Automatic annotation (TrEMBL):
GO terms for molecular function: magnesium ion binding; sucrose-phosphate phosphatase activity. Residues 284-410 form the Sucrose-phosphatase C-terminal domain. This is Sucrose-phosphatase. Residues 9-260 form the Sucrose phosphatase-like domain. The keyword Transmembrane helix does not apply. Catalyzes the final step of sucrose synthesis. Its cofactor is Mg(2+). GO terms for biological process: sucrose biosynthetic process. It comes from Citrus clementina (Clementine). Belongs to the sucrose phosphatase family. Keywords: Hydrolase, Magnesium. It comes from the Eukaryota.
Length: 421
């Protein structure tokens, strides 16, 4: 990972379904809370890793459905595929490792003799992963029989049962834990082992993550029986593993606080940001607060007060301009005037805003370029713009927005003439 020039302060390695993503939370509030925390306090110097059982196809589908951040590293198909960055550049070194003592043809052939096993969809059959559904009561016997057969055929495979229904067959050296160990070795060779690593999971295929030495771990409150049983049998006395009392992403936030790994209060949980003394300015945090204010203003969750707007205006350069995604340009002062009129236009409606990939660069003494993706969910519709802001920083309590430039992210433009900021 070249984005960070030094070791990450925190690396979070999280499962997605029922861990980062709560499928029972229609409003995705815990995920949005995590997102705000990550972009405000961690994105700058930490690494976010998603580790999912999903294939690239199903992973991309989930990203379309849920307000997920862009991870630095994506581990898919139960630790058999590792990719880097938004472009999802594959790690070919990992593929080499997995080819050892693996023969997908033999695995498929032998497993298809078991009527108890039902093939999962074609998208979930990957070069180093063959996946089935199996009933809970049959899982153990089938696993034992299969292990025996593969051994006799000279293959070294790993069989993992998850979620009380999924059975995955992988090369022995694969799996979420092995993939993480591989990454940690890679970081070590670059002299960039993260200061802290927190693994997060809920089901059987996550168990391995918790057995990697040195890492902190959180089993979310809604963890599956098979993971809790694994923990009771193998890691009960490890003080670095906790069972959260909160579900999914809220459990991850809770664990950050429990292990004191850094800030653990999401900006979404702070109602009045004017409270508290400002010690130093963090542009990531400022951007998160700005768009939370924008969301709350339009949802009428804060007072319709000029105080907020005048403090925003005070932070804008009087001769500053803004280029909205639809083109043209207007002064920052005019943009605020237009914004004023939008108070409460999303009251009682589904409307959420979140920022992703907030990165700041000092482009001159005291002058910063902040770049990020701004997402808006309005009803069923999603729009995203790429935003660049030039900010001048004088001191901790004095920063000025000089210029704002927005352009639609390809394929995610809004065409309803909605307001922008
Ligand atoms: C995901 C994958 C599936 C796998 C399961 C458990 O649901 O789509 O193929 O069996 O995770 O690892
Ligand atoms: Mg899961």
């Amino acid at each position: 990972m070249d984005r960070l020039s030094a070791a990450a302060r925190l690396m979070i390695v999280s499962d997605l379904d029922h861990t980062m993503v709560d499928h029972h939370d229609a409003e995705n509030l815990s995920l949005l809370r995590f997102n705000a925390l990550w972009e405000a306090h961690y994105r700058r110097d930490s690494l976010l890793v998603f580790s999912t059982g999903r294939s690239p196809t199903l992973y991309k589908q989930l990203r379309k459905e849920k307000p997920m951040l862009t991870p630095d590293i994506t581990i898919m198909s139960v630790g058999t595929e590792i990719t880097y960055g938004d472009a999802m550049v594959p790690d070919n070194g990992w593929v080499e490792v997995l080819n050892q003592k693996w023969d997908k043809k033999i695995v498929t052939e032998e497993a298809s003799r078991f009527p108890e096993l039902k093939f999962q969809s074609e998208t979930e059959q990957r070069p180093h992963k063959v996946s089935f559904y199996v009933d809970k009561d049959k899982a153990q016997t089938v696993t034992q029989k299969l292990s025996e057969i593969f051994k006799n055929r000279g293959l070294d495979v790993k069989i993992i049962y998850s979620g009380g229904m999924d059975l995955d067959i992988l090369p022995q050296g694969a799996g979420k834990g092995q993939a993480l160990a591989y990454l940690l070795r890679k970081f070590k060779s670059e002299g960039k082992v993260p200061t802290n690593t927190l693994v997060c999971g809920d089901s059987g295929n996550d168990a391995e993550l918790f057995s990697i030495p040195e890492v902190y771990g959180v089993m979310v409150s809604n963890a599956q029986e098979e993971l809790l049983q694994w923990h009771a049998a193998n890691a009960k006395n490890n003080p670095k593993i906790t069972h959260a009392t909160e579900r999914c992403a809220a459990g991850i936030i809770q664990a950050i606080g429990h292990f004191k790994l850094g800030p653990s209060t999401s900006p979404r949980d702070i109602k009045d940001e004017s409270d508290g003394e400002v010690k130093s300015i963090d542009l990531g945090h400022e951007v998160v607060k700005l768009y939370l204010f924008y969301e709350r203003w339009r949802r009428a969750e804060i007072d319709n007060s000029e105080i907020y707007l005048s403090s925003l205006k005070a932070n804008c350069c009087p001769s500053g301009f803004c280029v909205p995604p639809s083109g043209g340009e207007i002064s920052l002062a005019e943009a605020i005037n237009q914004f004023r009129k939008c108070y409460g236009d999303k009251q009682g409606k589904q409307f959420r805003v979140w920022v992703d990939r907030v990165l700041s660069t000092e482009i001159g003494p005291g002058t910063w370029l902040v770049k990020f993706h701004k997402w808006e969910l309005s009803g069923e519709e999603r729009a995203c713009s790429i935003v660049s802001i030039i900010v001048r920083i004088k001191d901790a309590s004095d920063h000025t927005y000089m210029h704002v430039h927005e352009t639609w992210l390809e394929g995610f433009g809004a065409n309803d003439g909605r307001f922008w900021i």
